[in-house]
Structures are given as structure tokens and as C-alpha cells.
Amino acid sequence: MTKQKQNNLRKQMAPYEKSNTKASIMQIINTIVPFILLWFLAYKSISVSYLLTLALAVVAAGFLVRIFIIFHDCCHHSFFKNRLANKIIGTITGVITVFPYSQWQHDHSVHHATSSNLDKRGTGDIWMLTVDEYMAASFWKRLAYRLYRNPLVMFGLGPIYVFLIQNRFNRKNARKNERMNTYLTNISIVALYALLCWAIGWEAFLLVQGPIFLISGAAGIWLFYVQHTFEDSYFEEDENWEYVKAAVEGSSFYKLPKPLQWITGNIGYHHVHHLSPRVPNYKLEEAHNNTQPLQNVPTVTLSTSLTSLQFRLWDDENKKFIGFREVTDYMQSRKNSELASK
Q1: pLDDT tens digits for range 53-98
Q2: What are the residues whose beta carbons fall under 8 Å from the beta carbon of 229, sequence distance 6 or more?
């Protein structure tokens, strides 16, 4: 794709970059109100059947993911035209989703500016090593990486560590406004949870909030994982890295069934989002459908996305993801060749 075509593609996003206040307010209503109702019903169902509670928690977790998409759009200043409105709603939805608005806004902006750039990894990304980096790593680093990339750790323990622990602390060199927003978020979360524990008891609170948090957290990490870890993805060193290519080829089009597409706030159109973060979530599908060059982007379906669990390392030489078994076989083959040459 030539520079001219890349520039034209970015320009084609311009008509979709303006938020619609009515649509944004409607999304707040049809997302947060059902979530609160489902949370209350899940609490009331404990005395009937905890299986019913879990069923309601699954649906509520879906709405919590959708609340996160509102938070996410506010961080990009794409949900409302007014920046203050984005910060207020972003902070409120950040309390609900246990994410500090200003801190995550910074890290996510860095992610967008460096996505698929092999020389600028580390902020807002899932930890990824290249084959050469893995082979040169110490035993303990390899072990840590293998544990990190294990699905049970990434999707099970990951939400607990990232959302409940890591999000509670300010990043190094954070400005005063960012630090204060993190403190405000933390205090608000503690106050909200304390109020609910006082009102319904801590046992009931954990029985409801626990599964909602774990399910939504695992779903959120999965969505982020599959949006950048898929077959035929794009990664380049800084000197060869191109923003538009990183957006269109390094971010997946996760084609989900309509109900899941709605509940995840169209975030499956991740290539459009990376091409232009100012497009609000409710215009991503329209932007994709009306832009001809985007019809041939890498497409991942619900079934094919499961194969991404096999992708552990980036093979920079062959420009593809490989699994641990493949790199182990390669390392053994190279070791045998070295022994044979002696």
C-alpha cells in the first residue's frame, strides 16, 4: 500500500469521526441501566438458586464489557464532543469497571501510537517476545513468559492482577491530574463496594460481583488478545513500521455474531478503531462497510479465533506467530547441528 493510498484511507474515516450526543446518551441508558437491573436481579436470585445467579452474572458481565467500551471511547474523546463530558463519564464508567480514566488514557494512547512496532513494545500491550528474544532469554524469563502466556494465567489470574492490583497504582512520572484521578477512582470504588457490602452483606456482594468481575475480565483480556494475536498479523521494526499498515493489518476484524457484536460495542472492528480512534464505537461498522479498501482486511471469526491460543512467539524472520513446540524443536535442531559440527 503506497503512502498516497494510506493517506486516502485515513481521510475516508473523517465523516465517521464525529460523535452523536443522542446516540451516546442512548448507549449509556441501554447499557448501564440493564447492568444495574441485572446486578439487582442476580442478588435477589441468590435465595432462589445460585445457578440462576450465575446465569444472570454471565449476562451482566457482557453489559460490563459494553460499559468498558463506553469508558474506552471516552478515553479517546470520541464518545462526546466535549472533553469534560468525556472525562466525567469516563471516570464514572472507570469506577464501574475498576479502571482509572487518566492513567489508562495515557497508556492506551501509547499503545495506539506503537501497536505492532517491535522496537516500542511494553506500554498497554500484551507481553510478546520474538523467537530470538526467547532463545536468548534466561531460564527464569522463559518460565515467566510461559506462565504469562498460559491461558489459565492470562484469562484467569490476569483480570485479578491487572484490574484489581495494577490499576490501583499510578505509573511512574504521572502528572498531578492523572495521579488525582487515580486516587479519586480508588476512593470511589472502595466507597461503592463498602456501601453495597453494608446494604446486602459482604457474602452476597462477593457471590454476585465475583463472577461478574471474573467473566467480564476474562472476556476483556480475550478481546484485546485476539485483536492483535492472529494469523497473518503485522509486526515490524521501527524503521519499517507504518501506522496505517499496523492498523489495517496488525489489528483484526473480529467478525462476531450480531448479539456479541452489540454487547462488545463493535470493538471487533478493531482495524477501523486503530485506523481512526476518534470514530465512536457505534459508527465503526458503518465506517468499515462504506470503505472499500477495508473489505479485504484479515478477518477472524468466533471459531477461527480459538487458534490464536497456539500463537506464543513472533517469528520475525518468517513474519508469523508460532507456538512453543515449534521453537523448542528449532532450538533442539540447532543444538544438534552445533554438536555435530564439533
Answers
A1: 999 999 999 999 999 999 999 999 999 999 999 999 999 999 999 9
A2: 126, 128, 308, 311, 321
